[in-house]
């Protein structure tokens, strides 16, 4: 798994949210949270597992909306940030954070109503095995995102500290089929790469985002989008 040691340092865990979701990165945070809510709602009483939950920005959000949720991550340092978020939000007793390996999930078959992972598959060295594990412990829904091969991210991917695994749509569809999942819905977004938005103030990012959405609605824009959201159901 790419970056496994990097994510387990105190410094990275403490600065993770501030570096990625401040300035124009707030637009990314909002879009990702909307994608998760659109896919998993209604949440009240739903049993949910988040893979690679990191600092808990989704885990806490879903707990606030009534989900019975477990957040799993390999990094104890990231999990500690999540616990602090849960305490601040007053939902510490409504969720559980666990340290664990996504390749060997410590849960029985069909244990959750839904399993999801955000910002995970671009680091996966064996995506098929991870997706199969997610499918195994879910009795209904699996949701995740990928970064795309035919996007602006491919131009500078080599320069990123860990790089990213980029996916073509055909590869994702093969992975879904191999895991025993049926695609229910897909969305594609962000012609401009995430790094661009994080580099500029939020007030400047908003007009660019408006143009991004308009161009992204076209057929060409959909194909060149940086990120895709995949909502699948267990066959």
Compact description:
This protein is of the alpha/beta class. Helix content is 43%, strand content 22%.
Description:
It is an enzyme of class 2 (transferase). Residues 48-140 form the Methyltransferase domain. Its EC number is 2.1.1.-. Helices cover 43% and strands 22% of the residues. It has 235 residues and is of the alpha/beta class. The chain has one domain: 3-Layer(aba) Sandwich (Rossmann fold), CATH 3.40.50.150. Strands 1, 2, 3, 4, 5, 6, 7 and 8 form an eight-stranded mixed sheet that branches. α3 (57-64) runs parallel beside α4 and α5 packs across α7 (169-179). The mean pLDDT is 89.
Protein topology:
Layout: H1 10-20, H2 25-40, E1 47-51, H3 57-64, E2 68-73, H4 76-89, E3 95-99, E4 112-117, H5 127-137, E5 138-148, H6 153-156, E6 166-167, H7 169-179, E7 181-189, H8 194-198, H9 202-216, H10 219-223, E8 227-234
Parallel strand pairs: 1-2, 1-4, 2-3, 4-5, 5-6
Antiparallel strand pairs: 5-8, 7-8
Helix pairs in contact: 3-4, 5-7
Oligomeric form: single chain
> What is the end-to-end distance?
28 Å
Average pLDDT: 89
Which structural category fits the helices and strands?
alpha/beta
* Domain module count: 1
| Dominant shape | globular
Q: Uncertain regions: pLDDT < 50 for 5+ in a row?
A: none
CATH first level: Alpha Beta
CATH superfamily: Vaccinia Virus protein VP39
Largest sheet: 8 strands, mixed
Helical amount: 40-55%
Strand fraction: 15-25%
């Amino acid at each position: 798994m790419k970056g496994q040691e990097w994510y387990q340092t105190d410094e990275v865990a403490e600065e993770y949210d501030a570096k990625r979701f401040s300035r124009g990165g707030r637009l990314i945070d909002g879009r990702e949270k909307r994608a998760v809510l659109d896919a998993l709602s209604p949440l009240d009483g739903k049993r949910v597992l988040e893979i690679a939950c990191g600092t808990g920005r989704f885990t806490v959000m879903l707990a606030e909306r009534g989900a019975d949720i477990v957040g799993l991550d390999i990094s104890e340092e990231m999990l500690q940030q999540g616990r602090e978020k849960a305490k601040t939000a007053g939902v510490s007793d409504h969720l559980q954070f666990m340290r664990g390996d996504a390749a060997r999930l410590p849960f029985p078959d069909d244990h959750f109503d839904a399993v999801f992972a955000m910002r995970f598959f671009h680091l996966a060295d064996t995506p098929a095995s991870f997706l199969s594990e997610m499918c195994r412990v879910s009795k209904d829904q699996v949701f995740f995102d990928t970064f795309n091969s035919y996007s602006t991210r491919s131009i500078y991917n080599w320069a990123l500290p860990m790089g990213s695994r980029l996916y073509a749509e055909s590869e994702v569809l093969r992975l879904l089929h191999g895991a025993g999942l049926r695609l229910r819905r897909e969305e594609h977004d962000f012609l401009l790469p995430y790094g661009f938005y994080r580099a500029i103030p939020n007030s400047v990012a908003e007009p660019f985002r408006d143009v991004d959405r308009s161009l992204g609605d076209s057929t060409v824009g959909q194909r060149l989008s940086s990120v895709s959201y995949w909502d699948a159901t267990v066959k």
